[in-house]
Design goal:
This protein has 436 residues and is mainly alpha-helical. It has two domains: 311 residues, no CATH class; 91 residues, no CATH class. Helix content is 69%, strand content 0%. It contains 25 helices and no strands. Helix 17 crosses helix 18. The longest helix is centred in the C-terminal third of the chain and has 30 residues. About 4% of the residues have low confidence.
Length: 436
């Protein structure tokens, strides 16, 4: 049995690597914000991008340059291997918990969820989009199977820190391990304090680094996204006497913004984009506007909250297809893309996620060995979805930012489908037994 499981894991690892070969650009695709990470890896505290780019990914690029200064092929290879390793470890979790009755079903599940084009495509980009997945799967493994010793807590702590510095959005993962592991001992409390100190380092860097942003002001992705969201919603009341508000008045955009509604229809986004391009500097550097607007009036906060919350179905219905991932046989390629586009587009993922939620909070599931596994997955999926929808101002961001959790989201679809089939088969057998 162990030999068979080992063969499944080896084959899965090799399959996930092999599926990249027909299409991946081993030199790495440069995105619009790649240069920021490269600049940090070259200049560190002197970089103009140090305030808005976490230092984890630039460290990978720096090591790549030490070995091969003329190419980023090692970084792309590293990302592909990390992704394949994440798939293999996730399969090991399924085996250990006996999530499926048959090992071959767990194997098929792992192939299905880790073959999605959305996640695969970002392995070819010089961006920190998919590497966090490997550390998230390790974190799940440690939380489920490691004993409550200091070394376990230390490993979890290290994984959290690495993931945080790769992509700070994964800060949402910190709450669960702290609750489960860290609060019940003096060692755990010490690690919490140490972690608080470590996550404060970027804020210290932002204040002291030698940079050259617009007028040397503090700049932040969060400020830019929140300001942009409010402008797109047409919310201005309370933002008076701020840099962004003054820029709006200077450009005579006040009436245009106040009459705006975020509809995602027709020319609405194009009109917003014109505002964004004109006010770009102020959107990025004004860290006061969104605070004043959101907390000036409860209605402002409610409008923002419910509009962002209403985007949750769109988050799960955004297609997982990606034309960067291509296969030589057009029929297979077309079928492959349609499969991963359709299960999102037709709300299969969203509907099955609701069933999954209702199913795992049944007492029968919570009492089983894999109950905590399902709760942890749901927590990661929903908390990351919440962070992404509340801190983005356009739906196309979902395609990129969902790349990490896409395999986990697809797992809930596969598992729910599996349970429905099992239920139908049981009913069918019961009817046959009665009729005979």
């Amino acid at each position: 049995m162990k030999t068979k499981k080992t063969l499944y894991k080896i084959f899965l690892f090799l399959f996930v690597i092999a599926i990249h070969i027909p299409w991946i650009n081993w030199e790495g695709i440069v995105a619009s914000d790649t240069q920021g990470y490269i600049d940090v890896s070259l200049n560190w505290l002197k970089s103009d991008s140090i305030q808005i780019r976490p230092i984890g990914y630039p460290l990978f690029l720096y090591i790549n340059r030490l070995i091969n200064p003329n190419s980023f092929v090692l970084t792309i290879i590293f990302q592909v291997v990390l992704y394949a390793s994440a798939a293999t470890l996730f399969l090991e979790i399924l085996f250990k918990l006996i999530v499926f009755r048959k090992n071959w079903i767990a194997f098929i599940c792992a192939i299905f969820i880790f073959s999605n084009p959305q996640s695969l495509s970002f392995n070819s980009f010089l961006l920190p989009e998919t590497p966090p997945l490997f550390f998230i799967v390790i974190l799940i493994y440690l939380l489920l199977f490691c004993t409550n010793r200091f070394i376990s807590k230390l490993l979890i702590f290290i994984i959290i820190v690495i993931t945080y510095f790769l992509k700070p959005v994964w800060f949402v993962l910190i709450l669960t391990p702290m609750i489960l592991f860290f609060n019940n001992s003096s060692n755990g409390k010490l690690l919490i304090l140490l972690f608080i100190f470590i996550i404060s380092i970027p804020f210290f860097i932002n204040k002291t680094a030698t940079t050259n942003p617009v007028e040397s002001k503090y700049i932040s992705n969060i400020d830019a996204c929140l300001n942009s969201s409010l402008i797109r919603m047409g919310i201005m009341k309370g933002g008076e006497n701020t840099v962004l508000y003054e820029a709006i008045e200077k450009n005579k955009f006040t009436d245009k913004i106040k009459s705006r509604k975020w509809t995602d229809k027709g020319l609405e986004f194009n009109e917003f984009r014109e505002l964004y391009d004109t006010l770009n500097n102020e959107l990025w550097t004004d860290n006061v506007y969104w605070k004043k607007v959101l907390f000036y009036d409860l209605n402002n906060f409610k409008t923002y909250f419910f509009k962002q919350l209403s985007r949750l179905p769109k988050y799960f219905s955004t297609s997982a297809s990606n034309l960067n991932v291509k296969f030589n046989i057009s029929f297979i390629d077309n079928l492959y893309q349609r499969l991963y586009a359709g299960i999102h587009k037709y709300h299969i993922v969203g509907v099955f996620l609701i069933f999954y939620f209702l199913m795992i909070f049944n007492k029968n599931y919570l009492s089983r060995s894999y109950g905590h596994f399902h709760i942890l997955l749901l927590y990661i999926i929903l908390s990351s979805a919440g962070v992404i929808i509340f801190f983005t101002y356009q739906n196309p961001h979902f395609l990129r930012m969902r790349a990490v959790t896409e395999p986990l989201i697809l797992f809930t679809t596969f598992f729910t489908c599996y349970k429905i089939i099992i239920f139908i088969l049981k009913k069918y057998r019961l009817r046959n037994d009665i009729s005979h």
